[in-house]
Amino acid sequence: MNIIVFIKQVADTEARILIKSDKKSLEIENKYNMNFFDEFAVEEAIRIKEKFKDSLITVCTYGTKKAIEALRTAIAMGVDRAFLLDNTNLDNDDPLIIAKILSSFAKKEGFDLILCGRQAIDDENANVGAMVAEFLNIPHISAILKLEVIDDKKVKAESELEGGREVIEAQLPALFTTQKGLNEPRVPLITGVMKAMKAVIPAIDPCSLGIVKEDIDTKASKITVLSYEPPQSRPPVKVIDGETPEEKVKSLVKALKEEAKAL
Amino acid sequence: MSKDVLVFIECKEGTVRKASLELLSKGKEITEKFSSYLYAVVIGYQIKGIAEGLKSFSDKVIAVDNESLKDYRWDTYMTVLEQLIKKYTPGMVFGASTITGKDMFPRLAARLNGAIISDAVGIDLDGENVRIKKPLFGGKIISWVVCKPGSTSLISFRPNSFSIEKRSLNGELIEETVEAPRDSRLNILSIDKSGSKKVDIQEADFIICGGRGMKGPENFQILEEIADIMGGRVGASRAVVDSKWREYDDQVGKSGKTVSPKLYIGCGVSGALHHTMGMDTSKVIVAINKDPNAPIFQYADYGIVDDLFNILPFLKEELKRAKEEI
Ligand SMILES: Cc1cc2nc3c(=O)[nH]c(=O)nc-3n(C[C@H](O)[C@H](O)[C@H](O)COP(=O)(O)OP(=O)(O)OC[C@H]3O[C@@H](n4cnc5c(N)ncnc54)[C@H](O)[C@@H]3O)c2cc1C
């Protein structure tokens, strides 16, 4: 089984993020991780390989050279190989373009199954998975909670619906986005970490995947960020005073009604 | 590209979801300004009544009614929308950033080679420009984004981003028949909608969220009672979900659901960054915590420093009384 996992390196939730004076760019503290939801994708791929031993797991990301760190984490967890689709000189954040690049990579490598996280925790977009599936003309199932690979042609997946769940049988090749609840991502063992340190991770120029540069450079982007701004800060908390719990609650409900107009 | 706006309507239990009405309200404001049309597209089976009900909100209501469209599937629904978009050529297509919206909109954008902005929270009309407001990094940064002129723009908004304005438009009802064959590579074996009677956590106006301070699953009963009184939902911190006191569906935060109710009450929730990133766009935040230094007080509008077990019984009574007065 040929498995591709697409991951993204994202700023840690604790990282300090500053808006630069041009208001059009950000300065992000040097604290990065593999995207939270992508860990479930990597873990699931490894579990499939544990069952179908002759599988090959390829992890890939589109990003800066720095993103190689996230690829190393995946190797430390147990994937076979990793590639960076280097975005140097392409600086582009349009999901449509990223999906085009990733799908070109998948086409070139070949695959039976593609996994990626439900969404990235930096932009919350949840775009790229389903878009890649469309460009590859394969079915996708979003936000899966269970995946059972029956053979190299068929899988059964359980996914979240509005107010429920559904169980779907899908023919491979197909793409699945993963979320919390699917599995418990493993913590890499020291031997894995050692292997990851030594692994050679090729950086690929996306233009070598048969894509024309004009189609993926900044000018091709269909969305433009005009500016960044800090969120509106909340006024300081009003601590509700009172002698007894009952008094406090009465004052709170009064404030919610009369002042905040929230009732 | 036209300045028309098309809204993809989501239904639940035979009624239009609140999030869709919010989008129609905002859509009307935009089309009024541009003197363009607002389309509401409703897809499903036996949806005549729903379509009729939408006429007051929209200039045109397009209904695609077919038994094969009874349940949402991206393959069929997307094909329907794709064809309607090609026929009616709206400049902007709005949807809700829900499980359905997140599943279908990106794929539709790829098919149409369109521009996509997901999980937006606001829109600003400045001259001819339509600027979209989108939070990044869990709300630490707000970005303002525009779509390239000339491309169909698909934009999904978080529920509770806009208020619902009642209108009396008496729009035109258009019934369309669209061929939407199923993708034979996908076969739905079973659907369990047992949770669909509950208020959707992302759409809820009121959320009372329990943290580890609730001490155990049995104590969530009173939160359920309060949520019922308020017509809202119980939420939970990750610590609670990880302890299996509540379902993952209830989880608020970075690795759960992003919510922005009109009123959020946190009970025994410490307010870790991963949690607050999922709720800090709530209109009014109340925190009940016995620790005056709990970080949640940095986000709260109102705080009660006390043992929550002393507070909750009174809170239930007072909220009940407040509701009865209205
Ligand atoms: C990658 C990642 C993703 C995460 N995603 C999420 C997420 O989506 N959602 C989420 O919630 N968390 C998430 N977390 C976890 C988060 O960091 C916190 O650990 C979690 O939110 C803590 O939950 P809590 O507030 O219920 O528990 P605690 O932090 O243990 O807080 C309990 C609080 O209850 C108070 N308390 C105790 N007893 C009482 C009482 N009798 N009366 C009043 N107050 C009392 C205490 O003072 C304390 O403040 C994530 C963490 C990571 C690393």
List keywords for this structure.
heterodimer, A: 263 residues, alpha/beta, Rossmann fold, nine-stranded mixed beta sheet, two-stranded antiparallel sheet, B: 326 residues, five-stranded parallel beta sheet, 8 helices, binds flavin-adenine dinucleotide
In short:
The complex is a heterodimer of chains A (263) and B (326). Chain A has 263 residues and is an alpha/beta fold.
3D structure, described in words:
The complex is a heterodimer of chains A (263) and B (326). Chain A has 263 residues and is α/β, with parallel strands linked by helices. Chain A has seven helices and 15 strands. Chain A has a nine-stranded mixed sheet with strand order 11-10-9-12-8-1-6-7-13, with helices on both faces. In chain A, strands 2-5 form a two-stranded antiparallel ribbon. The longest helix of chain A has 16 residues, at 36-51. Chain A is globular. With 326 residues, chain B is of the alpha/beta class. Chain B has two domains: 5-175, HUPs (Rossmann fold, 3-Layer(aba) Sandwich); 206-325, TPP-binding domain (Rossmann fold), CATH 3.40.50.1220. Helix content of chain B is 28%, strand content 29%. Chain B has eight helices and 18 strands. Chain B has helices at residues 18-34, 48-54, 74-88, 99-112, 220-230, 238-242, 273-276, 308-325, and strands at residues 5-9, 11-12, 15-16, 38-44, 60-65, 92-96, 115-120, 122-126, 129-136, 141-147, 153-157, 172-175, 186-192, 206-210, 233-236, 263-267, 284-289, 302-305. In chain B, helix 5 (220-230) packs parallel to helix 8. The radius of gyration of chain B is 21 Å and the shape is globular. The mean pLDDT of chain B is 95. Chains A and B meet through helix 3, helix 4, strand 9, strand 10 and strand 11 of A and helix 4, strand 7, strand 9, strand 10 and strand 13 of B. Strand 14 (223-229) of chain A pairs antiparallel with strand 10 of chain B. The structure holds flavin-adenine dinucleotide.
